[in-house]
Amino acid sequence: MIVTVLAFSAGRDPRGCATVAAAVATGQLSVGWSNDRIDLRRDVAARRTDKPLAAGALRPGTVSLAAALALAACVPFSLANGRIAGTVHLVAVAAAWAYNLGVKRTLWSPLPYALAFGLLPAFITLALPGSPWPGRWALAAGALLGVGAHFANVLPDIEDDLGAGVRGLPQRLGAHGSRVAAGLSLAAVSVFLIFGPAGRIGSAGWAGLALSALLACAVPLASRGPRSRLPFLATLGLALLDVALLLLRGGRLT
């Protein structure tokens, strides 16, 4: 949804927006389903009844097939946006798969998120006439948004992850350190979105920056509970606010 809105604001026509939406949707489905399949044993051990596969509602083979089909569909949908743009999106999807396949267990766990999110603005702009690259501020904002989302998303599962031997950077920093890292990363996103594009900021931009600062503070302070989803919800709020800030600045990705 967010990427489709950005594509529209950047000048993609309805057909272009549809191909962006299809590429992103199939890529995300492949990543999500593959993650559930790869983590099946860990999720069963942690009694993750919120996941249909771990709860026994789905067969592992069915999820594996669905992930493979979604990944296969992602290739033509991505390339329908142009060879360069499509390749960039497939690199982003590959980064997410690399995270699932083992990078999340290492000190470098934020890197796939940074790469995948950071390349999304390029996926949008490279499909425009002339295949322009986005501004460096847009790449930086996307990468930092991915890093912030990584830290916030891992928070509720840190204890289970440590018990299963998953020691990515958030697990090594602990819950409090991860909240702080998420808040700082997301605050930096708003700074890049406000001050990166050329042009007058305006009162709405300053108000958005103030609100994003409050939400960024809410990420580390929202809750001390190890399974709280509030930091992740604050992250989602920041993501939506950042999109609004980008639209207010004219959608000047290039």
Describe the structure.
By secondary structure, the protein is an all-alpha fold. It is built from 12 helices and no strands. The relative contact order is 0.11. The mean pLDDT is 86.
Helices, by number, come to 12
C-alpha termini separation: 20 Å
What does the average pLDDT come to?
86
Largest sheet: none
Work out the helicity level. Answer: over 70%
Helix/strand-derived category reads mainly alpha
Poorly predicted tracts of residues? none
- Give the helices and strands as they follow along the chain: HHHHHHHHHHHH
Strand tally is 0
The outline comes out as globular
- Please tell me how large the radius of gyration is: 18 Å
What percent strand?
under 5%
Quick recap:
With 254 residues, the protein is an all-alpha fold. It has helices spanning 2-10, 14-38, 40-45, 52-55, 60-79, 83-101, 110-125, 136-154, 158-163, 169-195, 202-221, 230-248.
